[in-house]
Amino acid sequence: MRRIEFSEIRNIDDLAKCLSCTNEDLRRLAFDATSAKHCRKMLIPKKNKSGHRIVYKSFDKSLSLIQKNLETTINHNEIFPECVQGFVRKGCIAKNAGKHLAKRYVLNADIEDFFESIGMLQIVNAFKRIGCNDDIAIMLSRLCTLDEQLVQGFSTSPVISNLVCHGMDEDFVTLSKQYNCTYTRYADDMSFSGNAVPTQGDIEDILSNHGFKLNKKKFFLQKRGDKQYVTGLTVFDDKYPRIPKRIKKKLRLTLYYADKYGLLNHFEKIGIDWSFVDWEINKIDGWIAFMFSVEPALAKNFKAKWNIILDEHKKSMSSESGAYNVFPEN
């Protein structure tokens, strides 16, 4: 993909060419993107089982394509600061955690209702900052929002949030220099580490200046010698981050019982409804893929066991007449 200067996108014809879509689709979706007919609202169970996350998925293929192309264009053409590790090229959870290894203090702070706190005006201003004129900035903002705010589920939300947080990240980098500590942000998860770290008041002041609030329930100061986590990984080792023991144990037990009783029998024993079988399988796939990015040797062993379980599951489903096949043949 060639580098694109957003200042060169002067009108809807230029924008349609940049996003590989038609003028008609841009006009139709930009002025009707808040309509429920383009999106499906889904409730996703939270990890701690305390309710659900609201996620929106577009079932309009043109809107999905436009959003995906816009996400790719921004990530390919914009250079984000080193402190931004979430949803950027060469950024990942392991790299984010790796910047906080073996520190005296690790402070984790979470931004409350992150995407939903980012409104239309902030997004328009972010697009204007990278060179868009007013009309293009407004059109792009409408294509990426529902009810004039970012939402979870749109492929564009993470990268646009990074654009919006440009000034906030600069302020936190300046603050971290005052404490001689390291600052990184992975979406709504902020981490500070060093021999000294900012106070809660310091962090709340900067968040407030940029239209955000601190999630006080997820504000943790972790000392060296105690358990220290950054974006879900332990950072006590001075060489590389590690998968927490509790996750390894949970996955090991899941595979053990799935192998012993069969996958569906195991899901039934732990109360997983049939409608969530695909979801659970994808979740285990996700755990193992996550492990490959952090501890590949360990992940390889888990993957081998999981493949055997899936093969047996597929055979058992194929042998049952009329049974729902979780793995349809291509």
Architecture overview:
With 330 residues, the chain is of the alpha+beta class. The protein has 2 domains: 6-234, no CATH class; 245-319, no CATH class. The chain has 13 helices and 8 strands. The strands form 3 sheets. It has a 4-stranded antiparallel β-sheet, covered by helices on one side. β7 and β8 (233-234) form a beta hairpin. α8 (166-178) runs antiparallel to α9 (200-209) and α10 packs parallel to α13 (296-319).
What's the main sheet like?
Answer: 4 strands, antiparallel
Count of domain modules? 2
Mean pLDDT: 92
Binned strand content = 5-15%
Q: Return residue spans where pLDDT drops below 50 for at least 5 consecutive residues.
A: 321-330
- Biggest sheet: strands side by side, in what order? 4-5-3-6
Outline, from the CA principal axes? globular
Strand tally: 8
- The CA-CA distance between the termini, in Å, is 31 Å
Q: What Rg do the Cα atoms give?
A: 22 Å
Number of helices: 13
Order of helices and strands: HHEEHHEHHHHEEHEEEHHHH
Structural class assignment: alpha+beta
Helical content band: 40-55%
